[in-house]
Amino acid sequence: MKQTIATIHASSWINGMATTIGHVDKYMYNPSRLSELVGHLHYANTAQVEEAEAAAHTALKQWKAMTGEARGAVLYQMANKLEEHKDELAQLASREMGKPIKEMTGEVGRGIQLLRYYAGEGVRAHGDVIPSSQHQVLQYKKHVPLGVVGVITPWNFPVAIPIWKIAPALICGNTIVWKPAEQASLSAFRLCEIFKEAGLPDGVINMVLGKGQEVGRFLVEKANIQCLSFTGSTVTGTTIASTCAARNIKYQTEMGGKNAAVVMPSADLKSAAAAIASGAFRSAGQKCTATSRVYVHEDVQDAFLTALKAEMTAVKLRPADDPSCYLGPVASKVQFDHVTDYINMAQTEATVLYENDDTIQEDGYYIRPLIVTGVDNDHPLMTEEIFGPVVVVKTFSSYDEVISFVNASDYGLSGSIFTTTLDEAHRFLDDANIGMVRVNLETAGVEYQAPFGGMKQSSSHTREQGQAALQFFTNVKTCAVKF
Ligand code: NAD
């Protein structure tokens, strides 16, 4: 019997409650099964964005006056409540944007870890005592909240990315106006409900649903915010960065990637192939840190490609709720059309080395994983972010040549080298113009306690996660005291 799953009505969330629901702006269908309605969205208007910002300013007075320990206690409760709802939220997010259920459950787990990590920061030492040049003067630096923080997030990590911004912003004493991606609105709404159930005071997180060009733009251009943290595409991020710079609002923009993996002659080819397949094809390649360029030394090209093709037998294209799914559909029609353009380009302008032959009965946004070769470094397949299950392979003949290939990209988010030679590993860690550099590990998967961010067009050069986020979400005061 076909299971009937309840649909969700999602609206903005202001001052601890759902806003009045008027007409439906968008119906959300499961990208794994397009006949399955997952929920309805009701978008905010600009007056509601102003209301959200006002609620955040009102809540700020009390929230920043609480001790770090008390704020931390709220974050621990948020983590515990999220743990209670882990499976339910993972299922909703997976049905909303098509991430395989196993990965989505892991992502909610990451959200819980982030909340606990930052909860502990409420009682850790921050700041420095700076020796004064005068007698009997105590001089020190302390970190203070910025105020109301605007948060704009993409759809590809619907739970972890919002939490890796929200949790550090909150522990530092800020309040939030959050604009999630349209394709992740249902999970955003449910997260707000869960956090309220956990005891988060009203107005501390306010969430506005809507289109980026309307609601997001209004938040960036007009709202009374003191800081803006954005993750999304480079084209959107660079526009947002210039608006924030003109308004003199503290900002960070984490953006796209075109991440390279390098396979040296000494590499363990089987484990390199497994890591590269995982980096390229999990989440259907829709990770900013996904592997999308592979450079293989000419001496091991044939052996590596044999290992990679063998690995592809495990790469199953399935509906996202199938536990055997390695990759599911792409998230939306927009994504499907965007990636299909590159697939067509690959099939006409490159040589296809491997195409998965899985056939799916369901009607969804399925794209078969593709491995291609035969294009130069300046070809769009090598330079543009595809954000789908396509990886391009090219050979090289020396370390100097490959490092020039890796660094030729406009992006600099993540990258890996596969080698058993320590000297090559260290050279790559030094030479790659990349924010997250890895040895014998896939390009994706940076841990939550470590700084996350890129170089060049991938980032505005601040870092997220770990201790770095605490620097970003605070202002520094230099204090000097004489009695
Ligand atoms: P996107 O830029 O289209 O949208 C991101 C967010 O910005 C959404 O909430 C959207 O509604 C909003 N937005 C769009 N236009 C806006 C505007 N003019 N003003 C204000 N807000 C606006 O990106 P996407 O398609 O949601 O996400 C995919 C992109 O995100 C990829 O490029 C990927 O590499 C990148 N990404 C980067 C990281 C990272 O940490 N570097 C992580 C995940 C995703």
Properties at a glance:
single chain; 483 residues; alpha/beta; Aldehyde Dehydrogenase, Chain A, domain 1; Aldehyde Dehydrogenase, Chain A, domain 2; 2 domains; 7-stranded mixed β-sheet; 5-stranded parallel β-sheet; globular; binds nicotinamide-adenine-dinucleotide; oxidoreductase activity, acting on the aldehyde or oxo group of donors, NAD or NADP as acceptor; Ald_DH_CS_CYS; Ald_DH/histidinol_DH
Short description:
The chain has 483 residues and is an alpha/beta fold. Helices cover 39% and strands 22% of the residues. The protein contains 15 helices and 22 strands.
Please, could you describe this protein's structure?
By secondary structure, the chain is of the alpha/beta class. The chain has two domains: 8-255 and 459-482, Aldehyde Dehydrogenase, Chain A, domain 1 (3-Layer(aba) Sandwich); 259-447, Aldehyde Dehydrogenase, Chain A, domain 2 (3-Layer(aba) Sandwich). It is built from 15 helices and 22 strands. It has helices spanning 46-65, 68-84, 86-97, 101-120, 160-171, 185-197, 212-221, 234-247, 269-281, 301-311, 333-349, 380-383, 399-407, 422-431, 468-472; strands spanning 8-10, 13-14, 17-18, 26-30, 33-41, 128-129, 137-145, 148-152, 175-179, 205-207, 227-231, 250-254, 259-263, 291-297, 351-355, 370-373, 390-396, 411-412, 414-418, 436-439, 455-456, 474-482. It has a seven-stranded mixed sheet with strand order 15-16-17-14-13-19-20, with helices on both faces. A five-stranded parallel sheet has the order 10-9-8-11-12, sandwiched between helices. A hairpin with a 2-residue loop joins β4 (26-30) and β5. The longest helix is centred in the first third of the chain and has 20 residues, at 46-65. It is globular and about 75 Å long. The mean pLDDT is 96. The structure holds nicotinamide-adenine-dinucleotide (NAD). Nicotinamide-adenine-dinucleotide binds at residues 152-157, 161, 179-182, 212-213, 216-217, 220, 231-233, 236, 239-240, 254-257, 288, 385, 387, 413, 454, 458.
